[in-house]
C-alpha cells in the first residue's frame, strides 16, 4: 500500500517534468526572491540556475529510488539491504537536506518508509510527525506524512489518536481520502465495529474516484466480514 502511494507521487513528478516539479514540489518562490534593482538578465540567470538545480535534484532522486529498490519495478520486500540499496538510501538522505524544499520532503518520506520497512518504525514515526507538523511543507506532502504515520499505527497505536488524525484526511477533494477511509474501516474492524466497517467499505467499492487497489481491497474485506458474520 505504501509503494502504491509513493508510485502515484513519483508518476506525477515524471509526467509534469521540471516546471511542475518546481511549481508544486520545489517551492522555489519565483518572483519574490529577486534582489531589488536586479535586471532582467540577472533574473533569467537566477531562474535558469534554479531550474537546473531542480532538474538535477529530480534526476538524482529517481536514480536513488532505482538504486534503493524503490522504483516501480521493486517488489517492496523488506529483505536485508544490499550495498547498492544502501547507497541509494544514502543519496535520498542527502537529498532530504539539500534538494529544493518539496523534493527534500519527499526524500524524507521515502527514507522514513524504508526505515519502517526494515524495523526502525519509531524513527519513521518521528520523521512523519515532524513533516506533518511543518507548516512550510507542501500541504499534500504533510497529508501523506499523516497518512503514513496512521497506517503504521493501525494495529497497535492509540485508536482515538489515529482515528482523529485520519479524519482530517477524509474531506472531499483530499488526495488521500480513500486511503484514509480504508484505514478507518480497518480501525473499525480492530474495535469490533463491523457494521461501521461494512458501511465504509461499501462506500469505497462504489467510489470510482478511489484508486483501483483500494476498491479491490475494500471488496475483499467486505467478503471476509460477510463470511465472518
Q: Could you explain how this protein is built, in words?
A:
The chain is mostly helical and 229 residues long. The protein is 72% helix and 0% strand. The protein is built from 10 helices and no strands. Helix 5 (121-132) runs antiparallel to helix 6 and helix 7 runs antiparallel to helix 8 (177-190). It is elongated. The two termini are 26 Å apart. Residues 16-43 and 73-77 have low confidence and may be disordered.
Rounded to the nearest angstrom, the radius of gyration is 20 Å
Q: Helix amount, in percent?
A: over 70%
From the N-terminal CA to the C-terminal CA, the straight-line distance is 26 Å
Put simply, the count of helices is 10
Structural class: mainly alpha
